[in-house]
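Risk register update: the risk of archive-format incompatibility is retired. Evidence:
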Amino acid sequence: MTAQVALVLVILLSAAALFITEAVRADLVALIVLVVLALTGLVNPTEAFSGFSRPAVITILGLFILTEGLERTGATRRIGTRLLRLGGASEGRMTLVIMLAGALLSLVMNNIAVGAVLLPAVMGISRQTQVKPSRLLMPLSFATMLGGMATLLTTANILVSTALRDRGFVPYGLLDFAPVGVPIVAAGILYMILVGRRWLPERWPGDQFTATQALPNELADLYRLREDVCALYVKPGSPMARLSLEAGQWGERLGLNVIAVSRGGKVALAPPKSHEIIEGDIVIVGGQTDDAELSPFGLRLTIDPDWGGEFHSDEISLVEVVLAPRSTLGERTLREIHFREKFGLTVLAIWRAGTAIRDSLAEVPLQFGDALLVQGPLAKIDVLRHESDFLVLSESGEEAPRQSKIRPAIWIVAGALALAAFGVLPIAEAVMLGAVLMILAGCLGLDEAYRSIEWRAIFLIAAMLPLGIAMDKSGTASLLGQLLVGTIGRFGPLALTGGLLILTTLLVQVMGNVTTAVILAPIAIAAASQIGADPRGVAMAVALGASMAFLTPVAHPVNVLVMGPGGYTFRDYTRVGWPLTVLLMIVALIALPLFWKIG
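Archived output:
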């Protein structure tokens, strides 16, 4: 072992520890790795920043734009909704249609985007059919990952293909994953319909999570809003009188959420922050308080005969909202993000781990998997639907603003994929051509295209790619390949392929697919070359394993996305996911030697 190999191993293990512990954000870890590789001379300056110009990064960047174009025109919503309508009233049929919809859309779209697009539609089906969300959402999540195994257009698959190209091998084509991926998709869907769904939890909202299938009144009951609702009389001379709600700082000073203001027999639900409080008003608030706490503010507890316990009206609604998978708001409070000021909506409660939090909400750091019960005007809720940090868990009656562009968007995506599939253009060029045409056709604007790109993912991928170069140049990949050959490879190429598939699957549960693919692809290629196996076939095991994120909720963002609405626990994923993982490994190890020259 040379000094360079030892240094690369130290960097590799340190980065892995940071990824697993999440002590530092993943994209920052990747940038640290890039800088350390450059400063230690393991890669030269050109190699250090080459990741930002790699075809893999350009392809992924272009896919973000294509996906956004499909979403902005409403094409994905229309396709997904029409597919889901075929589900009927049978739970088994619904599961089949939901999984087919998720898998098919994942062939051409980012998995996370598919989950975000279909989640409200699936919740709508749950509400209409009274089938519990816990019976439908895990199949949706798993389907998006299954579909990604049948196409090149998945981040891990693109990265493994890039590793092959960098080492002088033919990269994968658009359809190269289909012969192995389609049987995997079929096996996964059959498993969930025949076996897996029997192990899915049967939880009504009160058991674990709120009913995202519920109507506004039911939501209020399930969050137990009325338990902490008080009516406060504004006494003459109160310092809170003649002030707007914003100036009065009801949340900051009293820790209370203003639900309504009653005046002269009329109740104004979800009053805007500019609403002025006057003497004699009765303010309906959520939160716990008493007269001793209220006295300095000229307030006292009372009963309002005009408020009938309603939290919604024709103009005001209650909806549930979750953080989007790529939201930047995790661990930030509602006060820090100025939620009420920005959106004109009030968060009445937060559902977390089976419990409704109703007090001092402005100070509660948000977590992925939380559900926020939001009250406000329908128009402002529709604005929230277009906010990239949030997902509203109910379908909107509002049509997509660019429906006239649905057909051009679909044809552009189909044309770009056809150019790549038939080898007319390399995949990166075909995807970027499609992205440019999407903008020129008016399917989305240029600024919208820039906003659609997940820059954290781009920097993570681009900054991690030089690690693969360093592993090759230093001999680390060759050394680790020799260790694999010496321990597993001596039993034959299929054993090596199976060992890599298992190793990748285990690592992706804690490290994510990008990091796992970047680290293991060079090792797989080196090991395959040493025993005379086809590097493309062996490396495909790494790509497939990187999509097998079925064992834990944290292994994939879509698992996290559905965890709260489905009321799932960590154990639910493991119970349903481990037999699926074993089954798919068996299918993969049967299919790979049939279509690829493993040995």
